[in-house]
Amino acid sequence: MPSPAAAHAAPTPADPDAAAGARQIHARLRDNLARVLRGQDQAIRWLLAALAVGGHVLLEDVPGTGKTTLAKALARSIRGTFKRVQFTPDLMPSDILGVSVYDPSEHAFHFRPGPVFTQILLADEINRASPRTQAALLEAMGESQVSVDGDLRALDALFFVIATQNPIELHGTYPLPEAQMDRFALRFGLGYIGEAAEAALLEDQRTADPLSQLRACAGADDILTLRRAVQQVRVAEPMRRYIVALAAATRRQEGVALGASPWASLTLMKIAQALALFDGLDYLPPEPVREAAVPVIAHRLGLDPAARYAGRRAADVVRDCLAEVPPPA
Question: Which residues in 107-130 are b (16+ Cβ under 10 Å) and which e?
């Protein structure tokens, strides 16, 4: 057991060379994705922040904005394994987790791994699968392991889920409840790009698909290096109190039936650390926290029926909290 003096010693300072190397990894990935996703710098930034902290991402937007393309571009940018699952109402948990198959020649069962045993998993239109199948994936996301036939099987250390859903199609969908939405570090949309970027996209696609020409620029070890560098970004006590105050403010807002949990506070801190690292900082200022607050917290809130009928949105609640809680000086 460490001595009292050691317990209160200053934390080990961040390694500048390691931080610089991590930022180079981020820059390579960012530039690679930007070759395919024009006009989506903010979405790319948030996606890489989630990857850098080992979180998962829910992309929610109208069709044709590039949700699936972004997921595929990230998978191609990393020299790792990639699986895609198209969620449908008849998809079963075993279709995701895997199943034990009987081999009559050996008179024994052998486990056949499902697509969840990968490093990057694209869960396309996750809200089209039944709640039972959704739960199978969300358990894997929360625990980084699955239980099949009574055996616990660990997932890859890099396991990263990008799920997509279309918010405007309600027929044949099973919306994720708030308790399960908590498994996603970030939820955001891509939105429509500007006209100049859209014109450039048409030129990009005129003769070939840029996605097919994309080459890997990082490996699994690079991502783990990036994650270690994020952990070294210093978070002073005033910043920790600010993050907690923002989460607590959501619990007091009128019309909020379910406020942000301590897990939301922790996720907000980690995502903000990643954004600070990307910006060349070795400490956490208020700006990355304020930038990430809506995509980290909003999808975790539950509004009561009166607030929903009045047109109040969870994102508005978070913005009100940002205006109400002053950042540390």
Answer: eeeeeeebbbbbbbbbbbbbbbbb
Tell me how many degrees the CA angle 167-265-62 measures, rounded to the nearest 5. 15
Between the alpha carbon of residue 232 and those of residues 53, 136, 244, 284, 312, the distances in Å are: 12, 33, 20, 10, 38
Distance, CA of 186 to chain centre = 5
The sign one gets for the Cα dihedral 112, 118, 122, 123 is positive
Q: How far apart are the first and last CA of the chain?
A: 37
Of the candidates 127, 192, 123, 121, which has an alpha carbon nearest to the alpha carbon of residue 166?
Answer: 127
- Angle at CA of residue 220, ends 48 and 215, nearest 5°: 75
Identify the DSSP state of 1. -
Length of the chain: 329
Examine the pLDDT at 226 and tell me if it is beyond 70: yes
The tens digit of pLDDT for each residue in 100-149 reads 888 888 878 888 899 999 999 999 888 888 888 888 888 889 888 888 87
Provide the 8-state DSSP code for 148. Answer: E
Q: Which residue has the tokens 């309600």?
A: 170
pLDDT at 257 (0 to 100): 92
Over the stretch 139-175, which tens digit does the pLDDT of each residue have? 889 888 888 877 888 999 899 999 988 775 566 678 7
